[in-house]
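Re: your question from the hallway

Yes, I did run it. Sequences:
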Amino acid sequence: DVKVTQSSRYLVKRTGEKVFLECVQDMDHENMFWYRQDPGLGLRLIYFSYDVKMKEKGDIPEGYSVSREKKERFSLILESASTNQTSMYLCASSLTGRGEKLFFGSGTQLSVL
Amino acid sequence: GIQVEQSPPDLILQEGANSTLRCNFSDSVNNLQWFHQNPWGQLINLFYIPSGTKQNGRLSATTVATERYSLLYISSSQTTDSGVYFCATSIYNQGGKLIFGQGTELSVKP
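Structure:
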C-alpha cells in the first residue's frame, strides 16, 4: 500500500513565524499535492507538483510556497504564519498526472495563535 | 471551472440499513474518485471509477459519465462507516488536479 507520511499531526505556531510542513511518499509517485480543509469550505488545493523542482499554483496559493528537491518529499512553507492559516493541511500523492488514484496523508492540524 | 455537487449533505442511518450517496459534476471528466474521511481526519480512497461499476465488500460505486453523475452504495451499514464521504473529479487535461465536492456526512447509529 502507498504510504504518505506527514511529519506532524498537531502543530501550534505564533503569528509571523515561518512554518514548514513536510510530506513524504514511499511509492515513487510523480505527483504530490497540498490541500487545506476548513469547515464549510471543503478541500481546497494550495499547490501541486508534477516533478522534482516543478510546482504549480492551485486555487489558494497566496501566503504559501512549496519545495520539491527530491521526488519523495514535498514541503509546504508558510513564510509568515497568520491566524487565517489555522487549518487542517493534507498532503496527497498520485502516480502520474493522468488521473490515477490519489492517496492522502493523515493530515496536520495547524493552529496559528 | 468544473462544479461538483454531492447529496444529501448529511445522513443518519440505523446500523444495518442501506444508503445511496450521489455526486453530480458539471463537465466531461476522465477521473472520478470516492473518499471516506474517518472521524480522526484520515482520507481513504474508496474507488477510482471514471466509468462503470465497481464493488468492494459492502460498498459499490457506479459512474455514468455521459450523464455526469456517480453513485456510492453502502449496504448493511456499520458504525465504522460513519464519517464524511467525498467525491472528486478532474477535467480531461488536468488529470492530476482533483476538485472535491462538499461531502456527505454519514452517521450510523448502533
